[in-house]
Structure formats: C-alpha cells, structure tokens
DNA sequence: ACAAAAGTGTTAGGTATACACCCATGC
DNA sequence: GCATGGGTGTATACCTAACACTTTTGT
C-alpha cells in the first residue's frame, strides 16, 4: 500500500495502533419485502439524540473480531427476530463521508436483504418502534419520478444519509431481479407464477403480460421448478387454483435470458444509473 | 441503530471515542487498462513486512477528515502520476474479514478504475516498483476457466486477499461494459470503432463480428459520436484509414440496447456470479 | 350467469447471427 | 498483387410484444 494522507502520518509498513486514524465501522441494512402488492422496507424509529424521531435503517457496530458479513447477518436476525435463514443478503456500498454522523467518524457498510413476507409487526429486539414502509411512500432522491422536494404525503423524515442509501438499495433490488433468480427470495417456499409476477410488478411499478411472463419463467433455466407434490393453491379470492412452484436452488442464479424491465420502468432511475 | 456486538459494548446513543472498536480504513484500487490487446491491471510490489515481494493493489489509509471517494482519487493520482482526470472510478466492495491484514484490523473499501492506455512505465510516486499485469497472467479464483491451483506460468504472488478483490474487480469490468458506455473509458479521447471493438474483445476474451458490432454501436444512443473534425486515423499498420469517434459524454451512460457478451464468455464466471 | 384468475396458442414485428462483398492502404 | 483492416449489405433464425381464447373456481 502506498502512503496515506497527511494528517495522521501512516507508515507504509510496520504501523501499529495509534499510527492510523480510528474509525467506527457499522453495518446498515435495507431489508425489503413485497407485501400487499408493494415493495416495502423495514425502518426503525430513532429514540435518541441525533435525528430523534426520524426513521433509520436498522444497523449497528461491527465487533472487533467480527466479520462484516457476520455483523450484517446478526443485525438481520436481531431486527427481524428470525435466526439466520436462507435469505439473500448482499453488500450494497460503503458510505463514509465525514460528518454523515455528527458524533464521530463512522464508515457504514450498507447491505440489502431480500425477505419473504414476514409475520406482520415484528417488534425490534430492542424496544424501539419498527415498521414496514412502502418504498413509494418514502421521499427518496430521484426515484419513481421523484422530485425529492415534492414531499410525499406522510413521508417520514429519514436519519443520517439513509435516504441516499435507500435510493441506491432500491435501485439494486430493481436491477437484480432482472438478471438473477432473486425475485423468488420475496416469495414463500412454494408460490404460484401469479405471485412471482406480482413481485416483479410491485418492484418495478409496472404491469406485465401474464402470458409472456409465464413463457419467460418456464423457458428460463434455473428459476423455478414444479413443487414436489402436484398440489395446487386454493384460490385466495376467486379464480382457478394455480399450480405451485418452488425456487430452483437456495442460492442466486444468473438468468438466461434475463427479464428486462420495460423501458418506461427503467427511465425513472436513469439519472442515478451511473453508479 | 441497534446495539452492537458484545466485546466493546456500544451505546446506541451518545457514544464517543473509546466506546467503539477502532478500525483502520483503507482504499484499495484495481486500476484497469487495455493495452496490447489485453486487459491489464496495475500492481505494486511490496517491499516490506507482510507479504514482502508479493504484488498488491495500490492503496492507502483514508484520512480522518477525508471522504472515501476523495481518498480513492488521491491514491489514483499518486499511483498513476496523473492528476484527477475524467476517468471513471467506482466503489467495488468492502473487505473487512478479521485477519486479512495480519497487523491490525483493517477494513478496505475496494475500488475499480477504468484508465486509457498510459505513458508506459509510470514509476509509483513512492519509489516502489509498479507495473501492469495482464489479467490472464494472474492466478485468480474462478477466472477464465481458472482452476486457481493450476498456477499460471510466472503468475505473481498476490498479497493479502487481493486475489479475491481482483477477481471481483475483473468481474465488474466485464459486466459493466455490457450495459454502460464505460468501454470508451479505456480509449483515448478519439478512437476508431475497431479500437473500441478491441476493448470488448480484450476484456471478454472473445472475437466479435465486426459488422454486427459496428451496427450495434451506431444504433445505440449515447455511446459514440463522430469526432468533430472529419479527420481519420492514419492506419497503424496496413489497412484503410478509419473514421474517428469520441465518447458521447464525460459520464457513464446506460446503454439501450446493451451489448451482451456471448454465452461462452459468460460461462467462465458463472460460479462467481452469485455476489 | 358472471367475475376473476389460471393456462394455452397465435401472429406480426423487430433483433441478432452469420455471412458475402467492396474499399483503401502498406508492403 | 496481396494481405490487412475499414465499411456496407443481406438473409435467416430467433425472440418479443400484443392479444385472443379456453379453463376452473367463487359468488
């Protein structure tokens, strides 16, 4: 490594504690789910000092001997009340602008999690108030044609730089279901093709052609497979019972071909597409 | 934020120095260029303690009052000897596994930079040895059909977890030129369509059909535009002089349609495609 | 019977792939 | 002339988008 910045001189080799600027390192989680036909994200209400009353992404400090990924999984378990499952959790980006936390220099490694619909109002492990917010009800920079200033009715105030993180997180989700099997991560263990289509429609905010969607799913290797038993789902309301499917594997798969979202759904995020 | 891990108890609010585990935060850079028909990356040879003699990504500590992005740009300038240009530099991922640096707990924010072909042997600002390495000559996990154990002839030893970072960085580059205009970032200010095609071929390790590539470039909005003067490039060796083009904008643009790499070029990275 | 959702099929238009062919230059 | 790279065209296979139609359930 080369020499660092000027302020606290860092020796290229043989450095030890005290030689380097100390940082706090945290993980922040954008946990998404699809529920009631909308994409939602879990936020917690702050009960203390900076940004009191504002809503923030769940998160916390990384332990000295803890891997960053482990810290993210730990926070996910704490916030949702569920133990480490087969959910998908991935790094999003690291945010470390000086002053983003008024108290001290904190670098936050933001993550994105894909969760199926959970038993409704999981109270956070610590007594703070936590709830799902529809992404459309948030006031995020450059989202869904958002003007960012045109405050959505009842949009919560977001703490720190979490509006920025959320915008990037949403972007990631919308892009990722195009070319990976992650849309199934929003579904229960078995699901109908209609339910899977609803995931795409909720995330992208568009309507898809049922027939074409069905053809795409079935010709796309590695996305779904018929549920082991040939049972069907008794219809929720009216309509013919639907065949049940399950995700093809636990992990993430790259899809061939991808399902590209319609151009009009993509245009809304064009200005932020330059990572 | 919720409560942190056990070791150094972190107060959810009102914490201050000493309450949190101290981390060193660095930036590491994977600076790519295309030269001699191959994708190359800039590495520096370590002259000291851990991993002495091994090759590492250029990088260094982030200053206390320095933004992470600024630190990355600073390192880029130091390593290439050029001031902040219009190059493309983006965050890749953060690596923070305990023990990745044997000396202390360091969290590294890895970046990827796209550079045009530079005046050849830029000596690093500090006297260490720096050179371009062809990606194909490196022994990276799961790359180009790599077995990772089948050591490439003359493959350098890579320091820390930099082999892993490089694999992810290469992956990002290969994916990014599919759907953004970033291939032009490897080209000089004006370039021929043949040169642009060579970029794609070098990065993906495939041959493309000249005719189809040309049609794609020209029908794709926002990629290239004819150079202001209608000059041509005198042929390097033999052949007809070629028309010159320039990148359409400074920034990054999402391409419609994208240029998807052939399936066989994608298969080589399939196992790593699950982020 | 009717509405709603599942499932099947068909067709027109566009895009990609693999070529074939001519042009301009250096050797 | 001939090799090399630039530039243009075309035909086929394939994929996509749009829409029509049938089936099965609840009310």
TrEMBL record, chains A, B:
Domain Nudix hydrolase positions: 22-156
Q: Show the InterPro entries listed in the entry.
A: NMN_biosyn, NUDIX_hydrolase-like_dom_sf, NUDIX_hydrolase_CS, NUDIX_hydrolase_dom, WH-like_DNA-bd_sf, WH_DNA-bd_sf, WHD_NrtR
Show the GO MF annotations: hydrolase activity
The record's PROSITE patterns line, in alphabetical order, gives: NUDIX, NUDIX_BOX
Q: Which UniProt keywords apply?
A: Hydrolase
- Superkingdom of this protein's organism: Bacteria
Give the Pfam families listed for this entry.
Answer: NUDIX, WHD_NrtR
Query: What is this protein called in UniProt?
Result: NUDIX hydrolase
């Amino acid at each position: 490594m080369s020499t660092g910045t000027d302020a606290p001189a860092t020796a290229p080799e043989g450095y030890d504690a005290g030689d380097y600027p100390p940082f706090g390192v945290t993980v922040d989680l954008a946990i998404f789910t699809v529920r009631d036909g909308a994409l939602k994200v879990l936020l917690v209400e702050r009960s203390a000092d900076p940004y009191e009353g504002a809503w923030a992404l769940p998160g916390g400090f990384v332990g000295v001997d803890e891997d960053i990924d482990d810290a993210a999984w730990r926070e996910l378990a704490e916030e949702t009340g569920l133990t480490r499952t087969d959910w998908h959790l991935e790094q999003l980006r690291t945010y470390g602008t000086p002053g983003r936390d008024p108290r001290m220099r904190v670098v936050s490694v933001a993550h994105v999690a894909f969760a199926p619909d959970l038993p409704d109002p999981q109270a956070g492990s610590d007594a703070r108030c936590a709830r799902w917010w529809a992404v459309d009800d948030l006031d995020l920079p450059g989202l869904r044609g958002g003007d960012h200033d045109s405050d959505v009715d009842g949009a919560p105030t977001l703490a720190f730089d979490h509006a920025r993180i959320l915008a990037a997180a949403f972007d990631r989700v919308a892009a990722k279901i195009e070319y990976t099997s992650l849309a199934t991560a929003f579904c229960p263990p078995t699901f109908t093709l209609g339910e899977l289509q609803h995931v795409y429609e909720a995330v992208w905010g568009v309507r898809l052609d049922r027939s074409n969607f069905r053809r795409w799913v079935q010709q796309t290797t590695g996305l779904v497979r018929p549920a082991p038993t040939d049972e069907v789902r008794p219809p929720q309301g009216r309509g013919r019972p639907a065949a049940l499917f399950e995700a093809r594997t636990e992990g993430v798969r790259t899809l061939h071909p991808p399902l590209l979202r319609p151009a009009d759904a993509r245009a809304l995020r064009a200005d932020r597409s330059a990572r």
